[in-house]
Specification:
It is globular and about 60 Å long. It has helices at residues 2-20, 26-34, 41-52, 57-66, 79-90, 92-104, 107-115, 120-148, 152-157, 165-173. The chain is an all-alpha fold and 174 residues long. 25% of the residues are buried.
Length: 174
């Protein structure tokens, strides 16, 4: 459930930045994020293990560089690790429809709201979000289905006490 809320939130923030904050490399960053869509979830989980795991790069740098006796970062094998992995894996599924919606948004609406004195948050709330709500609902529904049906991330991370529908069925079948 938390991953289903995290994906639209993060996706909306990233889409707003990519669509409305001009910076060099925005298009390349959007394409890089798109590369997460076809990846199997176990590859993402494997990458998270290499980065955030107890013997991962982050803990290696912190234990050797700062002299910690035990690895200080150990959230990966918990519910929070599963949520982070699911949000990372499924946010691009929300980002794509949002960026498509933002590309079709009339810039004149934003310019009129701005010329009438609307602050950026007011423009986002009154102009951009109403146009983006169908894309947010569609992407959020897809994320809900994907996270409820998640098997690979939970199995590969090995989080204790995190049960999804496929894991429940798998556990009963075994």
């Amino acid at each position: 459930m938390l991953a289903t809320l995290g994906c639209p939130t993060l996706g909306l923030v990233i889409a707003l930045i990519l669509a409305f904050v001009p910076f060099p490399g925005a298009r390349e960053l959007a394409r890089l994020i798109d590369t997460f869509i076809p990846l199997p979830t176990f590859l993402l989980t494997l990458a998270f293990t290499f980065i955030y795991g107890s013997a991962g790069m982050l803990n290696g740098v912190l234990t050797e560089g700062l002299g910690f006796a035990t690895p200080p970062v150990n959230f990966l094998y918990s519910q929070w690790g599963v949520i982070l992995a699911e949000v990372t894996a499924y946010t691009p599924f929300i980002l794509r429809p949002l960026l498509a919606t933002f590309s079709q948004l009339e810039t004149s609406q934003i310019e009129v709201a701005s010329s009438l004195g609307a602050k950026p948050w007011r423009i986002i709330w009154s102009v951009i979000l109403p146009a983006a709500s169908p894309a947010l609902l569609a992407g959020g529904s897809l994320c809900l289905l994907l996270t409820a049906n998640e098997f690979g991330i939970v199995l590969f991370i090995g989080a204790k006490g995190v049960i999804t529908l496929p894991l429940l069925i798998y556990g009963k079948a075994i």
